Amino acid sequence: MDRMSSGNIPKILHQLWHTADLPPRFAEWRAGWIANHPTWCHRLYDGEAMRRITADRAPQWLATFDILPRMIQRVDFFRYLIVYLDGGLYADVDMISYLPCDALLRDASCVLSIEHRLYRQLQTELGYRRPWQIANFVFAAVPGHPFLAALLEAVARQASMPALSDDAVEEITGPRLLTRLAYALPAEQRGEIRILPQVHLNPPFFYPRLGPLAHIIYARHICAGEWRKQSRPLNRRFLPKGPFPNPFSTDCATLLD
Predict the structure, then answer these.
(1) Please, what sign has the CA dihedral across residues 62, 68, 71, 72?
(2) Using CA of residue 122, residue 198, residue 26, residue 88, what is the dihedral sign?
């Protein structure tokens, strides 16, 4: 598909779950997105719909979808694919919406968000050029954006690799793959990308309780981790991977320079 990466991001919210019935807490969080975005089109896809849509609308990607060994990897792949096909905003079902996201997407063709700022040791271990990991639990783009096209190709090249650990999932289809690709692609191949500070869509858990920050916090990722095979102790799940972000800093805007 050869499309320009300009234009407005469609007001479509894409969300995924492996069955048609969301658990109660996820259904409540999804209802919050709908309430905050009443004029948007809201779509929820289950496992059967993901494969059917891939087969019907992007059959060239069906072999990649089918060969991925874990359901979470097919979910990862489909989130990139459906936004590439239709444009819009993707958000995990374990995200809480606080404010409408229209302002974050205005006049942009692709919007990515910082997931974490990393301590130097973790940055070195992951081999990242800059101390930020980019989220794949929330992102937005116009249809046919070149960064998503490159992301689909990157998944296809390693789709048959065994995912023996949760870390491998993150490397093959998840945020580590997305982050590495964003760092590696030259500007003319990745297209225009807006990088949002972490505070807007993934603030530390206590930030929404602080009144002065309420107007810049649009959503928060609960990070339920339902897909993980290797369980993590609760204290590790919530330990920061880096310093708490300055909520007013825009230094991540230079991430892709």
Answers:
(1) negative
(2) negative
Q: Tell me the pLDDT tens digit for each residue of 182-217.
A: 999 999 999 999 999 999 999 988 887 778 898 999
**Confidence category of residue 114, pLDDT binned at 50, 70, 90:** very high
Strands, E assignment, 94-144? 95-97, 110-117, 132-141
Number of H helices, E strands in the chain: 12, 8
- For the chain, domain boundaries: 12-254
> Cβ contacts of residue 45 below 8 Å, gap of 6+?
14, 15, 16, 17, 53, 78, 82
Q: Which CATH number fits domain 12-254: 2.60.40.1260, 1.10.3720.10, 3.90.550.10, 3.40.50.10090?
A: 3.90.550.10
